[in-house]
Amino acid sequence: MADDLHPRYQRAHDAWRTHGETCEPCRSEQHCPVGIPLYQQLADLQDAYLRRLRTRKETR
After folding, report:
1. How many other CB atoms are found less than 10 A from the CB of residue 29?
2. From the CB of residue 48, how many other CB atoms can be counted at a distance below 10 Å?
3. Does the first or last residue of the chain, that is N or C, have fewer Cβ atoms within 10 Å of its Cβ?
């Protein structure tokens, strides 16, 4: 799972950005029912990715 973390994070970012381009509630941070899980997935993957980067930095 760790090996595909960055591509999954990038796909989640792309999905969120694409959705936000056409969704007024999500652009104003009042997430719609479709945007809520997209945003949560992006946030979760971002946290995991940053956590992995910090872990790698600490072990060097």
Report:
1. 8
2. 15
3. C
Using CA atoms, how far apart are residues 34 and 53, in angstroms rounded to an integer? 29
Nearest to 34 by CA among 43, 49, 22: 22
pTM of the entire structure?
0.83
Please say whether the beta carbons of 13 and 42 come within 8 A: yes
1 vs 31 pLDDT, higher one: 31
Counting other chains too, the contacts that 2-6 makes at CB distance below 8 Å and 24 or more residues apart are: 2/52, 5/45, 5/48, 5/49, 5/52, 6/49
CA atoms within 13 A on the CB side of 60: 6
At a CB cut-off of 8 Å and minimum separation 6, what does 40 contact? none
